[in-house]
Amino acid sequence: MIYNDEYETMPREALEAIQLRRLQQTVERVYNTVPFYRKKFDEAGVRPEDIKSLDDLKRLPFTTKQDLRDNYPFGLFAVPMSQIVRIHASSGTTGKPTVVGYTRRDIKTWSELMARALAAAGVSQNDIIHNAYGYGLFTGGLGVHYGAETLGASVIPVSGGNTKRQITIMKDFRPTVLTCTPSYSLHLWEVAQEMGVDFKRDLAIRVGIFGAEPWSERMRQEIEDKLGIDAIDIYGLSEVLGPGVAVECIEAKDGLHIFEDHFIPEIIDPETGEVLPYGETGELVLTTITKEGIPLIRYRTRDISALYKEPCKCGRTMVRMARVTGRTDDMLIVRGVNVFPSQIESVLMQHEEVAPHYVIIVDRQKALDVLEVQVEVTERLFSDEVRKLQELERRIEKDIKETLGISCKVKLVEPKTIERSMGKAKRVIDKRQI
Ligand code: DLL
Q1: How do residues 332-383 score in pLDDT, each as one tens digit?
Q2: Which strands form 409-413's sheet, in the order they lie side by side?
Q3: Staple 276 to which of 186, 280, 300, 398, CB 3.0 to 4.6 Å?
Q4: pTM score
Q5: What tens digit of pLDDT does each residue of 184-222 get?
Q6: Is 283 touching ligand 1 by the criterion CB < 6 Å?
Q7: Mean of pLDDT over the chain
Q8: Cα 258 to averaged position of ligand 1 atoms, centre (Å)
Q9: How far apart, in whole angstroms, are the C-alpha atoms of residue 265 and residue 23?
Q10: Buried/exposed 86-125: b ≥16 CB within 10 Å, e otherwise
Q11: How many angstroms separate the alpha carbon of residue 78 from the centre of ligand 1?
Q12: Distance (Å, rounded) from C-alpha 250 to C-alpha 346?
């Protein structure tokens, strides 16, 4: 279903006219209200009135996560605190957290965009949503929650954790939609199995809306097969909004539609900053054109994607972004070769003897980078002879070498030994930085 028929299917010319008007208003507003932007624009020699077409966007300087940190906590807010009704923040595992503020209208916009996203995934007011994204400073829980209420669906605000209770709730309340990180959905399946609950037979979930961390096409297959559901990819980031920046439609499951009446996407070469044409892979840059609390101009997301303009069979005219396979900052450089965890995941998932739970450990031994991939094997295989397990290890190592061009050590580990996360999974341990 298309939630907002007027905007989501708008002819591109009309959409671009709206984008330009909103961009001009945003640039004008931040120039006048946020000293950080005024200084940056002045340094770049560009003034609000120079933005005459969408093409002029590239004259504006980028904003980075470091800029948000340097202005911690509220320095980039464009309205007085009296107009802010909500604050969220990133977890801050890699430094100071980034803090964002929403006005009443921002919350309304976010709720509408999340309602659109849920509808794109085939959810309606007749659905019950089991929302296992964390509630709190993280945007996942409350983002889905407000969207669900706006759409008119029933929402169970279960949040993350206490997995056994979640299974009982799913059995008793019979939710039809599951929202959580893709890795947590597999953990739910695992715990359900332990409790003798069969997702397909005993539960009513028919669609899952998963995001907040990278996952591969093969991981989607695995989830769909195991849980017996449609798995839909949803993308967003707290700096720009939270979940609901882009979402796949259930009709195509082929790229995520970006809600372009609120965000202008660009893909750039992360090294040079040059804007790349449609279809090319690079870093996603987003400009918010309706946000009041903390508008962001050309925000470098560090997420790697590509943009596609071709029309989609669902009828939406908004561009699609390719599934985010990784971030410029989670790219590992191992002996000079660039590797993304998702590439390793794709190779692992080709082997049905292993479970989708893995961790990548990078270390340095005698000035040489060494890579170890620990992956769980299925229960059945673990009881097999050692020789068979070793043979599988060698096979996966060979596949990784052939696909990615790097040598690594693969270590099969016992089922359920790799730590499960209630939210975003931690896939990489880089001991070189410690
Ligand atoms: O993760 C917002 C969110 C909540 C999105 C629930 C989807 C569902 P942050 O905690 O600020 O916000 O983290 C944002 O997570 O820059 C990406 O690197 C990654 N990410 C988010 N969605 C996806 C996705 C939320 N579908 C960061 N695929 C982003 C891959 C994703 N990575």
Answers
A1: 888 888 888 989 999 999 999 999 999 999 998 888 889 999 999 988 777 7
A2: 409-413, 368-377, 354-365, 428-430
A3: 280
A4: 0.93
A5: 999 999 999 999 999 999 999 999 999 999 999 989 999
A6: no
A7: 95
A8: 14
A9: 12
A10: bebbbeeeeeebbbbbbbeebbebbbbbbbbbbbbbbbee
A11: 24
A12: 22
The model's confidence at residue 92, banded by pLDDT at 50, 70 and 90, is low
Q: Is the peptide bond before 73 cis (omega within 30 degrees of 0)?
A: yes
Sorted by where each starts, the structural domains of the chain and their CATH numbers stand as: 1-328 (3.40.50.12780), 332-433 (3.30.300.30)
**Ligand 1 center to 213 CA (angstroms):** 5
**Are 48 and 63 within 8 A, CB to CB?**
no
% helix, strand, coil for the chain, step of 5? 35, 25, 40
Q: What is the pLDDT of residues 152-168, one digit of tens each?
A: 999 999 999 999 999 99
Amino acid identity for residue 99 in this structure = V
What is the rounded distance in angstroms from the CA atom of residue 283 to the CA atom of residue 92? 21
Among 146, 303, 323, 329, residue to substitute to test ligand 1 (most atoms within 8 Å of Cβ): 303
Say if ligand 1 is within 6 A of residue 233 CB. yes
Please give the structure tokens belonging to residue 180: 């959580």
Structure letter (DSSP) for residue 316: -
Cα 398 to averaged position of ligand 1 atoms, centre (Å): 32
Atom from ligand 1 closest to the CA of residue 91: 10
389-434 pLDDT, tens digit per residue, is 999 999 999 999 999 988 999 999 999 999 998 889 989 998 886 5
Q: How far is the CA of 363 from the centre of ligand 1 (A)?
A: 27
